[in-house]
Amino acid sequence: MVRGRAFPAGKKRATPYADCFMAEKLTPMMQQYRKIQDEIPSGALLLFRLGDFYEMFFDDARIASDILGLTLTKRNGVPMCGVPFHAADSYVGKLVEAGRRVAICEQTSEPRPGQIVEREVTQILSPGNTSHLNLTQPKENRFLAAVVHHAERIGFSYLDLTTGEFRLTEFETASQWEDELLRLHLRELIFPQESGLPVDVEAANNIFEAPYDDWVFEPGFAEGHLKEHFQVQSLDGFGCTELTLGVAAAGGLLHYATNQLRASIEHVSSLTPYSGADHLVVDAATQRNLELVKSLGSSASDTSLLKALDETVTPMGGRELRRWILQPLRDVATIERRQQVVARFLEDIGPLEDIRAKLKEVKDLERLISRLSQGAGNARDMQALGKSIEPVPDLRQLVADLETPLSDELAESIEPQPELVELIDRAITEEPPLSLKEGGILKDGYFDEVDELRQASREGKKWITELQLREQERTGIKSLKVRFNQVFGYYIEITKSNLDQVPEDYTRKQTLTNAERFITPELKEMESKILGAEERVQKLEYELFVQLRTEVVTYTRKIQQIARAVAMLDVLAGFAVTARLRQYCRPQIRQEGRYLITEGRHPVLEQLEDAERFVPNDLNMSDEDCRLMVITGPNMAGKSTYIRQVALIALMAHTGSFVPAQAAEVPMLDRIFTRVGASDDLSRGQSTFMVEMNETANILNNATQQSLVILDEIGRGTSTFDGLSIAWSVAEHLHSQCKAKTLFATHYHELTELAVICKAVKNYNVSVREWHDRVIFLRKIVAGGTDKSYGIQVARLAGLPKPVLDRAKEILRNLEENELDATGQPQIAHSRNDPDRPKKRKRKSTAKKKTIPQMDLFKQPQSGSPT
Ligand code: ADP
Ligand code: MG
Q: Quick one: how far is CA 41 from the chain centroid?
């Protein structure tokens, strides 16, 4: 029994599949639907092409209608919803950004009566594979990654399908791996189903997790899979010999990309291992706190270091700069090679401007060639590719003229491709259309048959124009018109008033209010010639374009090589522009030793438009005399700014950038840690204090003599005594055990006493001046501690009502004078002119146990002598 009913008449979306849902027995189409659904990854939404719509059924429909805000309809009890095919990209984009995988199922045969249309899943889009959807910002990557772990070690690999970048590495600890996840801003992570993830990934990272078959991660299989893809005998050529787990992750990842996501990976042409030891490690908290690539606050303006430094003019350069900031170098020689290029650019502005002008002509080579090789690129992509390669010879010459070791190497890589430029230029018209199926792609003279067909269609059209004149004369109807539309093709239109003059050989086709439309046999004959030629040329142009694309794609490796060199060059030129604009200096890079800054500035704050004039400050740290600075000073004085600026300058120096200072001497660091106390991290669902202590533990366990540690007000999240005690012992440990260079900004004045017992602890404060009961911030770091916090003065700046301020001052005086009541408690409740005010009694011995026992608490520890 068939329960299906036809769609109600008049409904716009009356489709030919009206009676395909049956309660007892699935219709052939639904059987097909079920079969296809079984073949795609579980949880993926199936977008099923039906005529002009992609339809979703059952749970998929519920989920999608929720995410997309579409109306859920029901057909014989089956929930469904759909999106029109021509607008599908934006809907699919939303589903993917909502963390869903989406399988696109197309019709692969023409509809025939009584026969079911064949269908096939052509691609699976996912958070890590958005293919042609253009969801990713030009200056960002979109990474898909895999992780495997075995006996404490972690193998990791990531891949950007939009650029072809493919890397692998291994980690010793889960926390190193977690830092890497944040650095990469991953979208999708796969792992072997059985063994799972090394540790749970924080939900806040917003990573789509996809368990995958264990066997593809077997080292033997994974290696074989990679060798087959790269067509090599061994992976030694890529330098992966020792990285068994990394290779396992990479092999599994590639398998997932091709077999599960059905992505095309022809453009993934190499695999590059990397190691944390080669880089200055910037852990997740530090990335956040220093606002390296993203602002912390919700303020509209981007206050990240990336934004402040970014003068790149190509998308490749933008992505490269982000990489350099999050993965600074640790090798003196490599950094100096970069510095040499920047310095060379600064000597003479001419080459810098010329090179940047050429760079601006280079579009996103990596993504263009990726799209083309994935079969998604159109004629505009190909034209953009050709135009981007065109300036290469000039660029190469300009770079070669710089004559530094690194620029010579880059010039070598920027290899001209004249045949490719010529090929594309000869084939593609000046303004190619978006569509590949409607002709108009190829230049005249590229292919004879195309020219002939175009000629035929042109002549036909000319014949038709002439026909109008001829018929006007023959019939004597001046207003006779020959027109064209999609439904009727060519026709002759005659207004009502002239109908009596219509010749016999006209056949009526359609009646309008004011006119009638006619055809003639000779008109129809010419029409079929024109349309036939157009149809043929469209098909031919498409075929020729696909051939051309295949040929262009053979240049993938060369283009990727140019892209990489262009990226570096762009970043270095950008460094020079910033350095010139902001008067940066070239830092001296040392293997180890002191960290010196003369007149340093905060690279981001000094650029803010509404900021006060930035006051520069010095730094002088050394292993022997000053490796831990305790920085005190009132709220708002500039402590946090100063310690961040010191960290940022160090980090910038490690990227090869010049730095915002008059002079600087920077030792090679292994890690930078930053911990900021009392910041609420509610999004991560942990108490503030717990987060603070976790991160502090991470620092104490990992900091070495080569590390730079920035501590801002730690110990604030608990009671004063607790907090102070923790802050004290943390500082002591850093000084005496880790020996890391540390800047400790604190509101605990008591910490200044550390300098008494620790040789390399030095006190500094941010100076302020009092003036008529107000505080003036001088923003200068000076030697010595402070003993006053100016809290009330700062509160005044914040606009606290005057009575509240006056009362606070009174209480403060009471406290400072240690006034006690009859029971020996501090007398703060009473006002000065209160008649009931108890007699003034100095607190001395009575209250001794209530105050902080000063030097007792700060006695030297039993074990471990301070250095
Ligand atoms: P603290 O940590 O001591 O409370 P901050 O470092 O947060 O103070 O600085 C407070 C504000 O003072 C900053 O937002 C900035 O506008 C300004 N500021 C800090 N240092 C300087 C400086 N060197 N020159 C100019 N303005 C500064
Ligand atoms: Mg602060």
A: 26
Backbone angles phi, psi at 603, to 5 degrees: -60, -30
Please provide the DSSP assignment of 547-586 as one string: HHHHHHHTTHHHHHHHHHHHHHHHHHHHHHHHHHHHT-BP
Nearest ligand to residue 794 Cα:
1
> Which two structure tokens, joined as six digits, stand for 3?
């329960």
How many residues can be counted in the chain? 867
Q: How far is the CA of 674 from the centre of ligand 2 (A)?
A: 13
Residue-by-residue DSSP string for 453-500: HHHHHHHHHHHHHHHHHHHHHHH--TT-EEEEETTTEEEEEEEGGGGG
Q: What's the rounded Cα separation, in Å, for the pair 405 and 859?
A: 55
**Residues 106-151: pLDDT tens digits?**
998 887 888 889 999 988 999 999 877 777 788 989 999 999 999 8
* Token output for 160: 């950007």
Q: Say yes or no: CB of residue 615 within 6 Å of ligand 1.
A: yes
Whole-number Å distance between alpha carbons of 376 and 779: 56
- Biggest alpha carbon–alpha carbon distance for the chain: 128
Kindly tell me if the per-residue pLDDT of 845 is higher than 80: no
φ/ψ of residue 533, rounded to 5: -65, -40
Taking the CA of 677 as reference, the closest ligand is 2
Q: Confirm or reject: Cβ of 786 under 6 Å from ligand 1.
A: no
The answer, yes or no, to whether any atom of ligand 1 lies below 6 A from the CB of 600, is no
Rounded Cα–Cα distance for residues 441 and 599 (Å): 59
Q: What is the pLDDT of residues 217-241, one digit of tens each?
A: 999 999 999 999 999 999 988 998 8
What DSSP element (H or E) covers 62? helix 58-68
Nearest ligand, CA 639: 1
Looking up tokens 């006619």, which residue turns up?
A: 518
Q: Which residues pair with 491 in a beta bridge?
A: 483
- Highest average pLDDT, of 26-30, 345-349, 749-753, 817-821, comes from 345-349
Atom number of ligand 1 nearest to Cα 617: 23
Are 297 and 264 a contacting pair, CB within 8 Å? no
pTM for the full predicted model: 0.84
Rounded average pLDDT over 454-479 = 91
Cβ atoms of 49 and 105 closer than 8 Å: yes
Q: State how far the Cα of 201 lies from the Cα of 214, in Å rounded to an integer.
A: 19
pLDDT given for residue 684 in this prediction: 47
Instruction: Give the Cα separation of 782 and 569 in Å (integer).
Output: 40
Q: Where are the beta strands (DSSP E) in 256-308?
A: 272-273, 281-282
Strands 102-107 and 119-125: antiparallel
